[in-house]
Amino acid sequence: MTLTGSGSAYDPPAGAAARRPTAPSPGREHGPPRRLDRRVALVTGASSGIGAATARRFAMDGWHLLLSGRDRRRLEQTASGTTAVVLPADLAAPDGPRLLAQSALHTTGRVDVLVAGAGIGWAGPFAAMPHTDIDRVLALDLNATLHLVREVLPSMIAAGRGRVVLLGSAAGCVGVREEAVYSAAKAALAAFSQALRRELRGTGVGVTLVVAGPVDTPFHARRGRPYDRSRSRQIPPGRVAAAVWEAVREDRDQVYVPAWLALPDRLRALAPRMSGRLLNRWG
Length: 283
What we know:
Belongs to the short-chain dehydrogenases/reductases (SDR) family. The chain has helices at about 50-60, 70-80, 95-110, 130-160, 170-175, 180-200, 220, 235-250, 260-270, 270-280; strands spanning about 40-45, 65-70, 85, 115, 160-165, 205-210, 255. By secondary structure, the chain is of the alpha/beta class.
């Protein structure tokens, strides 16, 4: 199925001149008037956790921020003291990614960096996982991310610059028991990042995959089970935000937080049987 003429933010109708789409009204601004000559970052999942920490880190360097999430009040807390514009959106809704992209591009005219941080989890035996929860996890963690990238990417290619940052997980590298669907979604994002990176070679647009271990955020409580593994300690969201910032600044394709997470990923590729035994022991 071709995507040409799909109705995305940068697909004009056949035979018609390209024009700026009609987008939802942007959210409220915070702080002094915007300076549109600054670089623009669109951060999803910005109402809490890694997304909020990432937004604050970019704000420290003077970026103009577009912050998205489902909770306007929390978004405004993240935006407090900055020039950020809040763009509440439900990315799991059928038109959520398209409407967010239209609103973002309508607000600033461009997106230099997209940090796709929205996501949910579910913990428990796969055989007991409700079908509706399978769909919910895949819809937000995978499908919505791909659709949002698809909507924003043409403007970056046209500008000859930009970067897409995807929030992966150690669960997507090695597979975590009782997190089968979440692991599958994050593994798919990792493969997507590799394929898209090769496809975009020479366009000036980069793709970064940030592979993080367990992070101390409300994510675990919201998935229905608090984090209870003692062998792998949680890291603060600010540490992941700093890694995202450095990856964008240094044009890095993949980063691990903490850095030692690269070891089990490489072990899985080099010695899958040994990797499997270790995973069975340590979870």
